[in-house]
Amino acid sequence: MLMLIFPITRVLTKIIEGQATCVFFYLKVLFICLILSVSPSMIYSETAKVLIIDDFHPIFSESLSIAGIEHTYNPDFDLNVESELLKKYPIIALRSKMQMDQATIESLPKLKCIARGGAGMDNIDEAFALSKDITLLNAPEGNRDAVAEHCIGLLLTMSNNIHKSANELKTLQWNRESNRGWEIGGKTIGIIGYGNTGSSFAHKLSSFGCTILAYDKYIKATDAGLVEFVGLENLLQRSDVISFHIPLNNETKNLLNRELISKMKDQVVLINSSRGGICKTEDVWHGIESGKIKSFASDVFEQENMDKLNEEQKELLLKMSASNQVVLTPHIAGWSTESYKKIAQVLAQKIIEYTTKVKNI
User: Fold this and answer.
1) Which residue out of 203, 238, 258, 331 is catalytically annotated?
2) From the candidates 144, 150, 163, 275, which is the catalytic residue?
3) Least confident span in 40-44, 139-143, 230-234
């Protein structure tokens, strides 16, 4: 009997030890779950705060809230009244509310990240921001399809004289022969800038049966079989239609000028949906008047505040607007209902990823 007591005792001890181990691990898992469930914001550093100073789709704030990122939504932000508020936040989300120039950036010692709701970054001094180790985020993926579809619309409007014939019908003019159009199929379309919008435009063009050329100084050849990557001179000489999809910076300012136009085919069709500053408008108008340019469509302008146009700019804009060879829209290419939401989703996700990687902002 005594011989059985010792092994039985050992077995019972092991069982008790096993149960204790299980209980320990159970309590450990429970404690971790409780920590995580108390507040998602505990995952992030205390300073991961976002100031939103422009209009964004509600999903932007919702996404940040779900991720536990503290933020202040102030779409009516007034720089003249609330400039001190900027100094309290390491992350600022904006669209075109203000210029983030060198002086502004230097005045914000806590600033670690600028998140722009859109593609263009021309209202931000990127070089200076990066020199200060400030992370720059944007959301070109959110409106690339909207811009590309708008460009297709502009191209079809010009090729089929839709704007001209529609205006004529308003005064009961029925002109068929003078509005005979031309087909995109069989033409050569050149795309300058093959990033998000340029590549989306190419994919949407692919069903028209046209030859697509692309030039981009910084992006390696992609979409083999869809586009032919060529040099700029080659593209200018071969293209019937040229569409611009490039950012505005020191390298691209006034790129579309008389010199560039002189290298293009006669009766070329031009589309600009990138930034007005890449185009020297008076040079384009000269090209139209001289017969070099067949038609021109633009969604962007050098000066987009109509109240700040000088007399020369007003006169030029009115002349172009009245021309049947010109189609102008008020910077609405990327302004679709869907892109409004997609931009917010994309930018929120990038902020979440940024705050996850950078714990001590």
Assistant:
1) 331
2) 275
3) 40-44
